[in-house]
Amino acid sequence: MDIVLIPGFWLDGDSWSTVTPPLAVAGHRVHPLTLPGKEAEAIAHAGIGLRTHIDAVVVTIDELAAAGSVPVALVGHSGGAAIAWGAADARPDLVGRLVFVDAIPSGEGSVVNDELPVEGDSVPLPAWHVFEAADLADLDDERRAQFAAIAVPEPAGVARDPLHLTNEARFRIPVTIIACEFPREMVEGSIASGAAWAGELARIESLEIVELPTGHWPQLTRPVDLGESILAAVGPA
After folding, report:
1. Which end of the chain, N or C, is less surrounded by CB atoms within 10 Å?
2. Average pLDDT over residues 140-157
């Protein structure tokens, strides 16, 4: 299967490099994306928004479809989950599995995070004190330095633009959530109680939640385990 890997905020396609080996060994073809405005040489983020990133993923799906490589699996980490969900909404018949890494899909009109500090048209990686303690679990000084070294500013529009969804066929796509900083029981309880933030989850026809206890960036703190968790979700090649 072709697996499209969508990074979260401040990360590019290379951030998946220590996650992909189990997938490749199993025979899957992996496509780690570096989204528009997150290239190393990118300096201008004006005009780049959430739809820009969704469209970039849709282009990749269409290219794989043209080559006969569908359905594909989409893996979205953190803010990349909204991008994966939007792409699945656009091409539900071409997506065979969705994997959300430490993220929950949100509904129509939601934004990824409009509280992050913005500088011009960009959201630089904030100081560590901005994050909650659960985010930073296992992210020791060495890993924090690694993250800071590879971090690229996020286009502000990606964080602040509303997500627009139109195709309820997205709910038929099987979904796996790899929960790192929140327990499975919390998500299941929120679905059962009708919590508003779990509204999209409640409508997904096939949903599994697996736990990978660590902080918000398992590709830095537990990359091999993350790769094996993704492999378990998508199944054999």
Report:
1. C
2. 96
Q: Total structural domains in the chain?
A: 1
The CATH number linked to 15 is 3.40.50.1820
Residues 6 or more apart in contact with residue 168 via CB below 8 angstroms: 203
Q: Is the pTM of this model over 0.85?
A: yes
> Domain range spanning residue 95?
2-234
| 209 φ/ψ angles, rounded to the nearest 5 degrees | -125, 120
Band of pLDDT at residue 40, cut at 50, 70 and 90:
confident
Strand order in the sheet with 207-211: 29-32, 2-6, 72-77, 95-101, 175-179, 207-211
- Judged against a pLDDT cut of 80, whether residue 22 lies above it is answered with yes
Question: CA dihedral in degrees (77, 80, 84, 89; nearest 10)?
Answer: 130
Contact residues for 96 (Cβ-Cβ < 8 A; gap 6+) = 1, 70, 71, 72, 73, 173, 174
